[in-house]
Records
---
Amino acid sequence: MAELKTKIKQNTQEQSVEKSPIIQEEKEVVFQSKNFNLWYGDNHALQDINLTFHENDINAIIGPSGCGKSTFVKSLNRMTELVPIVRTEGDIDFRGDDIFKSGMSVEELRTRVGMVFQKPNPFPKSIYDNVAYGPRVHGIKKKAVLDQIVEKSLRSASIWDEVKDRLTDNAYGLSGGQQQRICIARALAVEPEVILMDEPTSALDPISTTKIEDLMQELKKDYSIIIVTHNMQQAARVSDRTSFFYQGYVVESDDTNVIFENPSDKRTEDYVSGRFG
Amino acid sequence: MTLVDKDIIAKKRTGRQSRNQIFKWLFFLCTMFGLAVLILLIADTLMDGWSRLNLDFLTNFNSSRAESAGFFGAIVGSLWLMLVTTPVAIVLSVGTALYLEEYAPKNKFTEFIKINISNLAGVPSVVFGLLGLAMFVRALALGNSVLAAGLTLALMILPVIVVASQEAIRAVPASVREASIGMGATKWQTVSRIILPAAIPGIITGIILAISRAIGETAPLVVIGVPTTLLVTPSSVFDSFQAMPMQIYSWVKMPNEEFQYIAAAGIIVLLVILLLMNSVAIFIRNKFTNRY
Ligand SMILES: Nc1ncnc2c1ncn2[C@@H]1O[C@H](COP(=O)(O)OP(=O)(O)OP(=O)(O)O)[C@@H](O)[C@H]1O
Ligand SMILES: [Mg+2]
């Protein structure tokens, strides 16, 4: 246990060196939730969530199972609306616009806010068609353009070299880790501004996990990332900011090194040090 | 002290194993029984009908004289019938299934409709015949035309295809749906590009079963009053027509024993057409399945 904590500290210290607080302030706000509440029927799953996410940050969301992490992340691109019993109150602003206001198109929101799910979920189509799906849905038909997008996205998801010779093969024939990177490439293909990742590496082996974590470091240059994770080391390793959810509340949200080294709430400290969860 | 008595387990083992064998053979016999009866039936029909199965039989119109009675009018009539039934049934039932599974609000009313569609699949065909008689033949004054009978049969097989399509659509994993919606695709894009292609093999299976049932169905045609002796084939869907099962039925009723053999020949033709249709459909299904 002590070993793990020092490891986390080392990692976070490395990161805190890179990051100066001045840059943090200049960064533009991407998402801001204001007193956001969500109910599944009578279950008050999210309670008064006030969080702000900045551009080019990797934001980790941690917390015990069932505390509402997935629900919150899915609220950001209004995927929770697919569940009929869901009811919400409060606002979530995306680049200053309330995502629930009547003029907001969900299709546009979900194009600008991409999502990668916990389990790799490629379409039962070829690798090429999987990545080209988003652009095609948005009306891009030219083969030459699609070819470029597919290559660029697969490269950004660092899987191009592994699949470039079999783009027409079914994506189901790939390993779980490869499938997940295909799904990331698919999300990147529409050039979103934010990428939501719900435990993207929980079904993967350490090597694939490392690849995806490295990938996230690359991606944060162009995108903002919000990642749900159960893996404390992962949160400490990759994220700039961390929000700790507990039973539907945000207990604490701060720079990752603060959360892991100097949390102000006892529950946060217990959770990140593995004492409960 | 152990709770698991090894001696008792050893004693019971032979009993369990022989029971295992007994059930295996019992189920094998069940399968063989059905198969044997089917083979007997087909062999019997083949023997009866073989002598009458020639080109004349296929190209002659029906006649009251056994020597010259043929199946041509009925074959062409049945094909016309399917030309109406198939597209109408497919469009209505796949549309219904898509609405119920993808668009309808999940409430008691939708549940009520779903249950009743499954129930409709069990309604006897003669009832659909009566419905067709009242609605299409009389109310819409279509007479005993291809259109009236085709629409009747389409209604009859509708529930079967709806239920099969619903199951195929439901089998498409929610994660794949979420992936599409999450990319900013609209409902219709998700349905047409992801869900339908994935569900197509299952839907086609339902369609095969349903059309096979429709082409051999007699009762609704009897109720509608499809003629058994016509000397022309229809030239439009508003014309009167003959149909294979109806023709066979009328031959079986004939007192002249020669007509029994003609009926057997008719059954062979009907079976061959059914087999052909099924193989084409299975081919299409496999092709679609392989594409993914
Ligand atoms: N589709 C749903 N219908 C009803 N209740 C739901 C649904 N999805 C989640 N919930 C409830 O909302 C609460 C939060 O669930 P959520 O999936 O957001 O948790 P989580 O933090 O992502 O957990 P995990 O770490 O296990 O993924 C739980 O009490 C859960 O039972
Ligand atoms: Mg979750």
---
Amino acid sequence: MKSLKIFIIVIVVILIGIQLIPSALPKNNPDLSKDISKTQDVTDDVKIILHKACYDCHSNQTVYPWYSKVAPSSWLVAKDTREGREELNFSDWSDLSKRKKVKYFKEIAELVEEREMPMKIYTVIHRDAALSDEEIKTLTDWTKAQSNLLLSDN
Amino acid sequence: MKKSGVLLVAAAFVSATFLQMNTVKKDNSTTEDTEVAVKIPKKVQAVIDKSCYGCHSADGKSDKAKDKLRWDKMQEYSKEDLVSIFDEIIEVAEEQEMPPKKFLEKKPEVKPTEKEYAALIKWAEKEADKLLK
């Protein structure tokens, strides 16, 4: 009985203690001047999909949930957001060369079709981010069309 | 006897027609492919042969490597695939990530020189730009 009490106290102390370790959630930035919607024809249905399923990790407009403010889940959110933005950031789309844009459109289609993106762990909590077959087709038809435009325009 | 002779000739004729159709079809697809013909100058081809071809062609042992890039199939990729592949070649050459480190430990002599990496990058940039124009 005594040892259980000590055990619980230790756990509580650890849980409080880790709150002091900064999680360094990447900062948001409301600037939309380089957003993908500025240079690419993002239709309304595609915009909805990107925002609900990708923008939390691949843009500077992350909507941080309550558990992102509490360790240890905050560390996980910080890591996925940081790495996601590094790989692909829809808020910095205009900075990309045409070549990179074509490659990203191809990668987006591949990863979404193979259901590797959005990340599984994300869809467990954000249920509406788990894309339906129809939504996947909407997205991949769009990436294909966008990349064809880039390949044909002079 | 005569009848079967006629039948034989007829059969030969019919199959010849089919064969011809097949070759015509094949020809069509190659003309489409030449639209995006990738040109590889001798200097660049020499680097590829020395440092890349073994893994990124039909005889390569790793499926992962072959999934990503097949030098022997460069003329078969779509424009979109080619642009992506050129971008990846540029990335791995800039970072000198290819050939893989482990492989170079065994065969250090196949590592491209700085000049050879630079030639590969310049070539891939030019080919990608051609497709994007």
